[in-house]
Amino acid sequence: MKYIEHLIEPNRLLLSWQAQESKNRSRYVIGELVRDGEKVVLRYFEDTADYSNAVEHGFTGHPAFQIKKSSTFDSQVVEAFVRRLPPRNRSDFYRYLEIRGINPDSEFSDFALLGYTGAKLPDDGFELVHPFENISEPFELITEVAGFRHESEIEKDSVNIGSTVDFVPEPDNSHDKRAVRIELDGKKLGYVDRGRVELFQYHLKADHLVRGEVVRKNGTESRPLIYIYVTIVPKAA
After folding, report:
1. Are 166 and 183 contacting, i.e. CB atoms less than 8 angstroms apart?
2. Helix, strand or coil for residue 100?
3. SS (H, E, C) 147-195
4. In sequence order, what are the residues at sequence separation of 6 or more whose Cβ sits closer than 8 angstroms to the Cβ of residue 229?
5. Of 55, 49, 57, which Cα lies nearest the Cα of 25?
6. Is the per-residue pLDDT at 228 higher than 60?
7. Rg of the chain over CA atoms, in angstroms?
8. Given this model, what pLDDT does residue 237 score?
9. Phi, psi of 24 (to 5 degrees)
């Protein structure tokens, strides 16, 4: 496993939600967690199309932060999401980190841990996304290929660890003009996750170096998963 070389402490995380029952299991960016010193506030994006679409597909808020009560929460926010992770004192916690490209010897906050792991559970659709905002130095991340099961032109067994991939904006995409396609040898693997699409669009439009390689394959036969190790080098670096 390749380790992420530059761990960036975030001040903000995006909260995304995947509709479990919709036909295409669409993912929506529905809120943010903002850190100000020791305090973290969760705010839902009530005035966005993603939020409205999520509500139409059954979104009612995180179980600990129901939208019928408020759109902003400032109590026990980090604690609620950290409970979605294995505890740091568990004997196999180092392995949990390694699988996600994090050197177990690194020092990082719980807030950063949430951003780099996503804090995903298998059945509720929530994921946290590190937006890597206002960063001028090189950095790395590991991201899942969205839509691989339905969109890929390549079978999972033909995708080799270490293979390089390309990121191609797809402005004519009928579902999302911001879409960024992931290609292997000129064939579509899938897409950049919607929570990270603005990040990729920004760096691709700025002609920064955006390099990716296949780093992990897992999942099941019915839901195969491909993960990409991404290196981004801004021109100023």
Report:
1. yes
2. coil
3. CHHHHCCCCHHHCCCCCEEEEEECCCCCCCCCCEEEEECCEEEEECCCC
4. 2, 101, 140, 141, 142, 212, 213, 214, 215
5. 57
6. yes
7. 17
8. 58
9. -105, 10
Backbone angles phi, psi at 198, to 5 degrees: -65, -40
Q: What is the dihedral of CA 78, 83, 85, 87, to 10 degrees?
A: 100
Beta bridge partners of 218: 225
Q: Is the pTM of this model over 0.85?
A: yes
Angle at the Cα of 94 from the Cα atoms of 182 and 76, rounded to 5 degrees: 85
How does pLDDT run across 19-68, given as a tens digit for each residue?
876 555 688 999 999 998 889 999 999 999 999 999 999 999 999 999 98
Q: How many other C-beta atoms are found inside a 10 Å radius of the C-beta of residue 45?
A: 18
What six digits make up the tokens of 191? 């897409």
